[in-house]
Amino acid sequence: MDEQTIQSIVNSVLRELGEQNVPTGQVTRVQPQNSGSSQNNPPAYKPTESAGRQSASKDQGAGLEDLSLDKFVHWNGIENAHNESVNSEMVKQTAARVCQGRAGPRPRTRSLLRFLADHSRSKDTVVKEVTPEWLEKQNLWEVQTRVTDKSEYLRRPDLGRKLSDEAKKIIGERCKKSPQVQVVISDGLSTDAVTNNLEEIIPPLMKGLESAGFSVGTPFFLRYGRVKAQDEIGSLLQAEANLLLIGERPGLGQSESLSCYCVYKPTESTVESDRMVISNIHRGGTPPIEAAAVIVDLTRKMLEQKASGLALKR
Ligand code: B12
């Protein structure tokens, strides 16, 4: 491929991304190579004035728009559709990667870039840390599992299920003993899940539990936690119900989703079938305020029936 062809491909990609100071003279249309039936090939790329266009920037590539914006998530990439309204309706209804179109056998530039951006965001939220400053603002103190850093957290789930000796000591000293309900917050597999949802879920959750007449323990943050860590905390504090708000493993469309795992009288011999989960808590799923009400209701049932998981009749 000669240099001019490469330059024109680069320019056409930049144009599709909304760069306006790409020298027009050099932009040539990138034609898909014809292999087999041309009937299956979408039309060649044409720069359009659609989503993604942004103000001119002198520095090519600088200031490209955030690919998580709604207009990219709900982007209809199918051109010349037989029934356009069916596709645009579908695109409006979901954040799933539908109606992306294709360039020959490959994804279109815009959908490939969005895919890569979503993937980076998911990886970021797993490796990022909840900062001590943020915890201080939330009035939360922290303890740690036996994991020493993020990399070990990912390699050794078993250590994330156990409290460090120091954590046991601090919890013993600072927490109210034998409350009816103990709330614990943990980063788990998504830091954004915690930092984006906590401020909206904690106040209605704590208020809801108190208004329901339950004695509520001292909430705290568990760094590098796995779900089973709630069982050791339960044994330690002798709480009737343990509620663990923890970051979910991110997906390619959603990286800030929180779960609440709930158990009645957890001990170290608690098994998964004793546990329940309210998942998908985030603004685009079950909104945090609504989730708080669901959790309060479930807690009431656990305390009434003295059971959780499969033993609980819902
Ligand atoms: C990863 C995952 C799994 C993995 C867990 C392996 C592991 N060690 O990570 C596997 C494939 C084994 C799994 C199995 C199941 N899962 Co699952 N799982 C998930 C997923 C994608 C992420 C969970 C997560 O990030 N947890 C946080 C991290 C930090 O936890 P962890 O300590 O590393 O791992 C623990 C939890 O993941 C927990 N867990 C995982 N799934 C479930 C399901 C239930 C009901 C419970 C109580 C616990 C639980 O078990 C792990 C070991 O303790 C969620 C999707 C989501 N949006 O949350 C679904 C999800 C939680 N799972 C679900 C279901 C239904 C199941 C199964 C019942 C499927 C089945 N029919 O067998 C089983 C139950 C397993 C169990 N532990 O009881 C549903 C729960 C729906 C609900 N609200 O009740 C979810 C929300 C998916 C969905 N949208 O349908 N799961």
Summarize the structure.
Helix content is 39%, strand content 11%.
Write up this protein.
Helix 9 (about 190-210) packs across helix 11 (about 290-305). It is built from eleven helices and six strands. The chain folds into two domains: about 5-125, DNA Binding (I), subunit A (Orthogonal Bundle), CATH 1.10.30.40; about 130-310, 3-Layer(aba) Sandwich (Rossmann fold), CATH 3.40.50.11240. The chain starts with a helix and ends in a 9-residue tail after the last helix. Residues about 25-60 have low confidence and may be disordered. It has helices at about 5-15, 70-75, 85-95, 110-125, 130-135, 150-155, 155-160, 165-175, 190-210, 230-235, 290-305, and strands at about 140-145, 180-185, 220-225, 240-245, 260-265, 275-280. It is an alpha/beta fold and about 325 residues long. The chain has a six-stranded mixed beta sheet with strand order 1-3-2-4-5-6, sandwiched between helices. One of its GO terms (molecular function) is ethanolamine ammonia-lyase activity. It comes from Marinobacter aromaticivorans. This is Ethanolamine ammonia-lyase small subunit. Its EC number is 4.3.1.7. Pathway: Amine and polyamine degradation; ethanolamine degradation.
SSE string: HHHHHEHHHEHEHEEEH
CATH class bucket of the largest domain: Alpha Beta
Which structural class fits the helix and strand makeup?
A: alpha/beta
Ligand roster? cobalamin
Shape: elongated
> How is the biggest beta sheet arranged?
6 strands, mixed
Strand content: 5-15%
Name the CATH superfamily assignment of the largest domain. Ethanolamine ammonia-lyase light chain (EutC)
Q: How many strands appear in the DSSP assignment?
A: 6
Q: How many helical stretches?
A: 11
